[in-house]
């Protein structure tokens, strides 16, 4: 279940990899697009549903976009719930059970790390089948909006809007389909179904023209910037950065612009840290005379008693034009074509 992103996903694959994996990519592509064309199980009769997903597997910034959309909607006095499949939670906690996340009593092992984070900004319902989660949420109260974190591929609940999130540093990797590359879909084949592509940039300015050229002409582009909060961090320290996310080099590169990194350690995506892992990291930090630093998503997966020894970098989205996002959210209410 937990794996590290292969380096070859972000460089041209050699002839051996291409020979071995290209046939598997063709099978994966055929199956994923066949599944994509299936009928949805459920359409909410009350709540408007927004799916936030990605073409690539892991690390694109979907969760921070969902969090930002929740904030915008709540600022307009809308009642919002996030529907999640709870990726990474342990099956012995009843993976088919419907859970309304309570940060005071639940853990990432029970509900997943992303639901734990998103429960800070909205009600979150976790179930393997999000159509069941939606109906459970509707039975508990009236919601104006449902948001689906990583909601492009599944056919549980029909969205009113679909956003594809693209990280400017990742792009579409080497352009290949899983497992030869990081992409779950050929964008051209699903472009008819996407309302907009959200491109997230970082502190360092980069030329987006090559990336934008890979986005189908019919898909509008929304721009946002990932902002990291360093205000509470003493930058006189040396740091060991560690994380278990979809694309660790992005996190390490962003920190190196602001802080002195003496070591970087990557774990598999959604990795469930044990006490031994935490103690090993702490020993490494003591040996190098450094502080540990990680992401919010990683911190929730680390035993609570070690949190005071680890710095964390919160992230949020600054939209280039927040009125553009607001227009799409208004579209979800009034429906049907993009602005």
Structure description:
The structure is a single chain. This protein is an alpha/beta fold and 339 residues long. It contains eleven helices and 13 strands. It has helices at residues 15-36, 62-75, 108-111, 113-118, 130-140, 187-190, 209-213, 248-256, 275-288, 296-299, 322-334; strands spanning 48-53, 80-84, 99-100, 123-126, 145-149, 161-167, 196-201, 221-228, 238-243, 260-266, 291-295, 310-313, 315-319. Helix 6 (187-190) links the parallel strand 6 (161-167) and strand 7.
SSE inventory with pairings:
Blueprint: H1 15-36, E1 48-53, H2 62-75, E2 80-84, E3 99-100, H3 108-111, H4 113-118, E4 123-126, H5 130-140, E5 145-149, E6 161-167, H6 187-190, E7 196-201, H7 209-213, E8 221-228, E9 238-243, H8 248-256, E10 260-266, H9 275-288, E11 291-295, H10 296-299, E12 310-313, E13 315-319, H11 322-334
Parallel strand pairs: 1-5, 1-6, 2-4, 2-5, 6-7, 7-8, 9-10, 9-11, 11-12
Antiparallel strand pairs: 3-4, 8-13
What are the defining features of this structure?
single chain; 339 residues; alpha/beta; Rossmann fold; 2 domains; nine-stranded mixed β-sheet; four-stranded parallel β-sheet; 13 strands; 31% helix; 21% strand
Give the CATH superfamily of the largest domain: P-loop containing nucleotide triphosphate hydrolases
With strands numbered from the N-terminus, the spatial order across the biggest sheet is 3-4-2-5-1-6-7-8-13
Shape: globular
Helix coverage percent: 25-40%
How many β-strand stretches?
13
Q: Outline the low-pLDDT stretches.
A: none
**Strand-pairing-aware structural class:** alpha/beta
Q: How many H/I helical runs?
A: 11
Largest sheet: 9 strands, mixed
Architecture of the largest domain, CATH level 2? Answer: 3-Layer(aba) Sandwich
- Provide the CATH top-level class of the largest domain: Alpha Beta
Number of domains: 2
């Amino acid at each position: 279940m937990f794996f590290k992103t292969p380096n070859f996903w972000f460089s041209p694959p050699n002839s051996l990899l291409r020979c071995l994996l290209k046939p598997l990519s063709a099978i994966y592509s055929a199956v994923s697009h066949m599944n994509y064309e299936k009928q949805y199980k459920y359409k909410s009769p009350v709540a408007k549903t927004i799916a936030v997903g990605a073409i690539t597997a892991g690390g694109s910034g979907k969760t921070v976009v969902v969090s930002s959309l929740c904030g915008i909607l709540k600022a307009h006095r809308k009642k919002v719930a996030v529907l999640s499949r709870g990726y990474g939670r342990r099956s012995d906690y009843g993976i088919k059970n419907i859970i309304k996340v309570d940060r005071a009593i639940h853990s990432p092992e029970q509900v997943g790390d992303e639901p734990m984070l998103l429960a800070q900004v909205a009600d979150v319902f976790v179930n393997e089948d999000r159509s069941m989660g939606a109906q459970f949420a509707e039975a508990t109260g009236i919601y104006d909006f449902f948001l689906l974190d990583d909601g492009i591929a599944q056919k549980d609940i029909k969205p009113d809007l679909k956003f594809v999130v693209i990280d400017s540093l990742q792009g579409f990797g080497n352009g290949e389909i899983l497992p030869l590359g990081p992409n779950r879909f050929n964008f051209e084949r699903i472009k008819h179904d996407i309302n907009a592509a959200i491109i997230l940039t970082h502190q360092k300015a980069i030329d987006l023209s090559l990336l934008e050229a890979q986005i189908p002409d019919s898909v509008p582009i929304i721009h946002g910037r990932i902002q990291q909060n360093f205000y509470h961090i003493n930058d006189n320290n040396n740091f060991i950065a560690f994380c278990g996310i979809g694309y660790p080099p992005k996190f390490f590169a962003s920190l190196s612009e602001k802080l002195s990194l003496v070591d970087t350690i990557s774990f598999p995506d959604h990795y469930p840290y044990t006490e031994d892992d935490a103690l090993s990291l702490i020993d490494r930090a003591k040996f190098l005379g450094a502080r540990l630093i990680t992401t919010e998503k990683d911190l929730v997966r680390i035993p609570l008693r070690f949190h005071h020894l680890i710095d964390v970098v919160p992230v949020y989205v600054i939209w280039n034009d927040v009125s553009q996002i607001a227009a799409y959210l208004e579209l979800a209410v009034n429906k049907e074509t993009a602005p």
